[in-house]
């Protein structure tokens, strides 16, 4: 029997929802670009300024509509985007339109430059198509990031506390990235946007790094090498298809840095910089130190003209608090400290048992952390192992104040990472590699490291030569490490080359046809038609997304997805309840299935009434130094015994169908 109030929309309606997503994204983008033009920004700088404005508006709409439980309504969110665009039309227009600016840039490009731009776009689209074909989502994605989004979509109130697992309060993480992801996923009712967001965030990070380094007068060659060294880090590429929060946090941090660096010329850039800072801090706590330095430097550069920006800056600060500060305020009220559950104080709640077992830092246990895992660290860090010492030593060669200051900021960033929880080996035997996953927290520090090396490349001295060589070697090392990642993390080089070739040919053909015909669609009509078509086409890979994920994933949920798919029940809409951990992909391609976490001490008879129920098997791991302790503990509800045989049993799971009889 289908779950009351739930049904699969007709295919045509689902395609229409994806088309609406394309139009809503276009509306927010157009409004944000118009608002960004008020800062005087042009070109890539305008895009970098518009991105946090668009994201901030999307998050705010989810939060405000959530007050009346419409925070995930496709109709409400679509109308809100349209109204935002209409309201933006009342803003004064400064400078050329985005379409006019793009057309002028394209007209000024040579034949070779157009082919290169088309090749880059084609390779990126080929990458996105491949990721949609093989949608790999890691453990954090299926148990935390997407779980939070599924709950946002389910409740319509993004501010509700959600629990994904007994062991760890993921609801107390900074959740701005999940809130932002809930905007497109709510409109389209599919997981496809979750696959595309991280690659898009990496492109935004590259744009922002380019803009920031240009504002710091780094020459084009060194600038290009620095951007490539950052974007090809395995820390970015190994999680490219996952809805992780590390790459988006890096993107928002770099937006804030780039805009703050330009505040000396255009003080109004501080307004979107503050909003980008709120998004960054609301996404990940690891950005705090470089973010404070960047915003402080931007305020100093624009110090003589801040008085005239009081109103917009106050508005941006309030927006940053709304989209990025809510989670910290909630933790303070509920648990006594904004950074709980990562850190505790004498007056806050104690750490959860899981974090207590994994809260060791790299500085606490450097030898134990590296022992037997040096090769893994080398493969994961790749070019970072060269760039980090280069950033520390280059000030001795460059002897320039800006390089020395940047190196000091980088050194503090690295020390903060090494003293952060989970960077050291934990106490659960069999889960020692968690510390390697914590290398992702290095991304903000690596951005500062690469900026330091790029600043040293500004001169014509020995330091500039060493910095340029270091960046080039790091890129090669990164690419070699990326080639080793392989399936299902990255496509083969052939896929990217074919996409690049098609993109280059397409760019040349479009340019040639335009010269011959001289007829063009009005830019606004072309943009609307293109956005609707792109959104509608996204419905094709969205269908079957969950089953394809189950076929390529190496996560625990893969076997459940494959079993449900094999029985034909993957499209069922009857509720599915879990003990221990919920797995978000089982909500289905269209997020129609309700997912619950059974309370630890719920009576067996009540648990039986939840529909399908997935019990974790009695599988635990020993804890180092505590002979009697096992992790995770077996919850009382997992001891329920059914008279009927499980519909599915494995080493990790027992699955019972709705209505299974209990033993007396």
Description of the structure:
The chain is mainly alpha-helical. Among the domains are: 357-491, no CATH class; 554-656, Rossmann fold, CATH 3.40.50. 60% of the residues lie in helices and 4% in strands. The strands form two sheets. Strands 2-1-3-7-6 form a five-stranded mixed beta sheet, with no helix packed on it. A two-stranded antiparallel sheet has the order 4-5. A hairpin with a 2-residue loop joins strand 4 (621-623) and strand 5 (626-631). The longest helix has 27 residues, at 11-37. It is globular and about 75 Å long. The relative contact order is 0.12. Mean pLDDT is 88; it is low at 1-8.
- Main sheet attributes: strand count, strand direction, barrel closure: 5 strands, mixed
Q: In terms of per-residue confidence, which ranges show pLDDT below 50 for 5 or more consecutive residues?
A: 1-8
Task: Give the oligomer, counting copies of the same chain as homo and different chains as hetero.
Answer: single chain
Q: Give the number of helices.
A: 28
What's the mean pLDDT score?
A: 88
How far apart are the first and last residues' alpha carbons, in Å?
26 Å
Quote the beta fraction.
Answer: under 5%
What's the helical proportion of residues? Answer: 55-70%
Briefly note the structural class of the backbone: mainly alpha
Please tell me how large the radius of gyration is: 25 Å
The coarse silhouette is globular
- Beta-strand segment tally: 7
Strand order of the largest sheet: 2-1-3-7-6
Describe this structure in a few short sentences.
By secondary structure, this protein is mainly α.
């Amino acid at each position: 029997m289908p779950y009351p109030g739930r049904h699969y929309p007709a295919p045509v309606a689902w395609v229409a929802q994806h088309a609406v997503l394309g139009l809503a994204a276009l509306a927010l983008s157009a409004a944000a670009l118009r608002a960004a033009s008020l800062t005087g920004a042009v070109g890539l700088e305008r895009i970098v300024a518009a991105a946090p404005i668009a994201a901030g508006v999307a998050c705010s709409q989810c939060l405000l509509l959530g007050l009346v439980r419409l925070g995930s309504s496709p109709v409400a969110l679509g109308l809100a985007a349209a109204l935002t665009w209409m309201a933006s039309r009342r803003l004064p227009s400064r400078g050329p339109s985005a379409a006019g600016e793009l057309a002028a840039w394209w007209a000024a490009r040579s034949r070779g430059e157009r082919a290169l731009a088309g090749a880059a776009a084609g390779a990126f689209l080929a990458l996105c198509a491949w990721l949609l074909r093989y949608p790999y989502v890691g453990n954090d994605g299926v148990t935390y990031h997407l779980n939070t989004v599924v709950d946002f979509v389910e409740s319509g109130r993004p501010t509700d506390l959600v629990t994904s697992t007994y062991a760890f309060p993921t609801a107390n993480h900074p959740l701005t990235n999940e809130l932002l992801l809930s905007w497109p996923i709510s409109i389209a009712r599919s997981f496809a946007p979750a696959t595309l967001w991280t690659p898009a965030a990496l492109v935004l990070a590259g744009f922002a790094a380019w803009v920031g380094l240009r504002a710091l007068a780094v020459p084009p060659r060194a600038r290009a090498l620095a951007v490539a060294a950052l974007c090809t880090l395995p820390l970015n590429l190994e999680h490219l298809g996952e809805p992780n929060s590390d790459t988006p946090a890096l993107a928002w941090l770099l937006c804030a840095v780039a805009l703050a660096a330009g505040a000396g010329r255009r003080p109004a850039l501080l307004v979107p910089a503050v909003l980008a800072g709120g998004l960054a801090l609301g996404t990940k706590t690891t950005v705090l130190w470089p973010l404070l330095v960047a915003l402080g430097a931007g305020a100093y550069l624009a110090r003589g003209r801040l008085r005239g920006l009081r109103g917009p800056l106050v508005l941006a600060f309030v927006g940053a608090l709304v989209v990025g500060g809510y989670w910290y305020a909630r933790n303070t009220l509920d648990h006594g400290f904004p950074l709980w559950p990562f850190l505790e104080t004498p007056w806050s709640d104690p750490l959860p048992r899981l974090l207590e077992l994994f809260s060791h830092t790299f500085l606490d246990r450097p030898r134990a952390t590296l022992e037997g895992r040096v090769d893994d660290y080398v493969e994961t860090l790749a070019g970072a192992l060269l760039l980090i010492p280069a950033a520390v030593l280059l000030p001795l060669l460059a002897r320039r104040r800006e390089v020395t200051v940047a190196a000091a900021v980088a050194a503090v960033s690295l020390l903060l990472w090494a003293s952060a929880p989970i960077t050291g080996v934990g106490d659960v035997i069999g889960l020692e590699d968690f510390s390697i996953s914590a290398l992702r927290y290095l991304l903000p520090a690596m951005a500062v490291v690469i900026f330091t090396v790029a600043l040293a490349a500004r001169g014509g001295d020995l330091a500039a030569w060493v910095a340029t060589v270091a960046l080039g070697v790091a890129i090669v090392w990164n690419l070699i490490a990326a080639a080793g990642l392989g399936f299902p993390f990255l496509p083969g080089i052939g896929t990217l080359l074919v996409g690049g070739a098609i993109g280059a040919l397409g760019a040349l053909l479009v340019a040639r046809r335009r010269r011959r015909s001289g007829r063009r669609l009005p830019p606004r009509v072309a943009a609307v038609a293109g956005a609707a078509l792109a959104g509608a086409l996204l419905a094709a890979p969205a269908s079957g997304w969950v089953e394809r994920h189950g076929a390529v994933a190496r996560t625990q949920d893969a076997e459940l997805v494959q079993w449900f798919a094999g029985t034909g029940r993957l499209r069922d809409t009857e509720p599915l309840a879990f003990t221990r951990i919920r797995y978000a992909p089982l909500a289905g391609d269209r997020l129609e299935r309700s997912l619950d976490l059974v309370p630890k001490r719920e009576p067996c008879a009540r648990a039986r009434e939840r529909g399908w129920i997935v019990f974790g098997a009695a599988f635990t791991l020993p804890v180092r130094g505590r002979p009697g302790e096992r992790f995770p503990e077996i919850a009382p509800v997992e001891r329920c015994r059914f008279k009927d045989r499980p519909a599915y049993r494995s080493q990790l799971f027992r699955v019972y169908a709705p209505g299974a009889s209990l033993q007396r």
